[in-house]
Amino acid sequence: MSDTCRPTKCIIDLDAYNHNLDVIEDHVGGAKVVPVIKADAYGHSLRLVVPELIARATERVAVALIEEAVRVRAAGFAGHIHVLGPTAAGQEHLYRDQDVEHTVVSVAALDQLVRAVGGQRCQVHLKLDTGMGRLGVIFDQAETLIAAAVRHRSVEVVGVFSHFANADSGDLADARQQLERFHQAVEVFEKLGEPRPLRHMANSGGVAQLPESHLDLVRPGILTYGVYPSPETERTIDVRPVLSWHTKTSAEKVVPAGWPVGYGSTWRATAPTYVATLPVGYADGYLRHLSNRSDVLIGGKRRAVIGRVSMDQTVVEIGPADPNRPSAGSAATDVVLLGRDGEQHIDAEELAGQAGTIAYEVLTSISVRVPRVPLGGTPQITIEP
Q1: Catalytic residue among 9, 17, 32, 38
Q2: Count of CB atoms situated within 10 Å of the CB of 265
Q3: Mind giving me the DSSP string for 238-258?
Q4: Residue 303 contacts by C-beta under 8 Å, 6 or more apart in sequence?
Q5: Are residues 348 and 227 in contact, defined by beta-carbon separation less than 8 angstroms?
Q6: Are 266 and 207 within one domain?
Q7: Is residue 351 part of a domain?
Q8: CATH number at residue 170
């Protein structure tokens, strides 16, 4: 999609993305970095990110779904792709056809996979539950899964992994307990006389502040896009935000004292007030919970969002009516929704705090109708949407 279709767009700074990968690689030492590019690269666009990874000769990436892996492979990525979620029945052929690595979460899932591949070789990562409570066998039952996996000739155990629940917090006691459990479970390979596969556990929080979790691989996600996973996470790496979100005013005018703005009339002018309408709303991913709470940047100054965010439009307060300014402006004034304008900056964490959510949701909620426009980086290739 051309960035000329509408004034609302996200700029994806690919030089910042490469910088972030560089500093993360330096931070984790000998561990291999596996960029997590699920959810359309956390809202940053696989179409833009994958060519950078190809240019860097990245060996491995991780996604959540086989459909995402198919897109990554179609983009020309020839390295290893690991689907972090379990394999759904009937999708096994896609893994084989695309040369993608499975996640196995139980003995039952392993047996189903072995039956489906019919003796053909498949590569798997075994998922252990060390305290997240979602996928994987409980760590002290790992021997059953590991023994079953190494017994099957059609199964190559490429990796064994777990996932931190609290590695982004200020208190790392739970994360360290999870890591201890993981090490205990992995000892089963030695007990069985089997070679130890690739071990990986560190997410963005673990990468940033738990160096003992930097095992054979690390799996940073949001950190690669220049955003820390939590306000509590120690800022140990100089990452830079990759995404900024821009629009232009579509209308500007003065509303009289007492005049309401937006559905529900939740804001009323206390005096004649200059306001501007922006062509962006919750259908674009500008969260409705930001109504009457957030700011935007216009001319390097903060301007408050007033009234409820609508599906396609949002109104901001410019300031008191000025007799020297026309009552209706020409519009098309530049607006920053997320990013920097002069000395002012609005980041994903700020919007998340105002909306009562997390930065992950802010980024991944920006909808596909907002064009992603590259800045810098490698010359782009075309990837089917």
Answers
A1: 38
A2: 11
A3: -----EEEEEE-SEEEEE-TT
A4: 276, 295, 296, 297, 316, 317, 318, 319
A5: yes
A6: no
A7: no
A8: 3.20.20.10
Contact 20, 224 (CB under 8 A): yes
- Check whether residue 145 and residue 277 sit in a common domain: no
- The number of angstroms, rounded, from the C-alpha of 66 to the middle of its chain's C-alpha atoms is 17
pTM above 0.85, yes or no: yes
Q: 283: domain CATH number? A: 2.40.37.10
In this structure, are 247 and 209 located in the same domain? no
Dump pLDDT digits (tens) for 295-310.
Answer: 999 999 999 999 999 9
One-letter-per-residue 3-state SS of 184-197:
HHHHHHHHCCCCCC
pLDDT score at 6: 83
Is 263 assigned a catalytic role? yes
- Show the domain range for 334: 243-346
What DSSP designation does 20 have?
H
Concatenated DSSP letters of 129-197: ESS--SSSEEGGGHHHHHHHHHH-TTEEEEEEE---SSTTSS--HHHHHHHHHHHHHHHHHHHTT----
Is 38 catalytic? The answer is yes
Among 17, 32, 248, 263, the active-site one is: 263
Residue 381 predicted with pLDDT over 90: no
Together in a domain, 152 and 189: yes
Is there a domain that residue 170 lies in? yes
**Which position has the token pair 């992603």?**
372
Question: Same domain, yes or no, for 156 and 44?
Answer: yes
Residue 140 one-letter amino acid: D
- In whole angstroms, what is the distance from residue 187 CA to residue 197 CA? 11
pLDDT at residue 2 greater than cutoff 80: no
**Average pLDDT of the chain?**
95
**pLDDT exceeds cutoff 80 at 328:** no
State whether 25 and 161 are in the same domain.
yes
Domains held by the chain: number: 2
Contacting residues for 277 by C-beta, under 8 A, at least 6 apart? 249, 250, 251, 252, 313, 314, 315
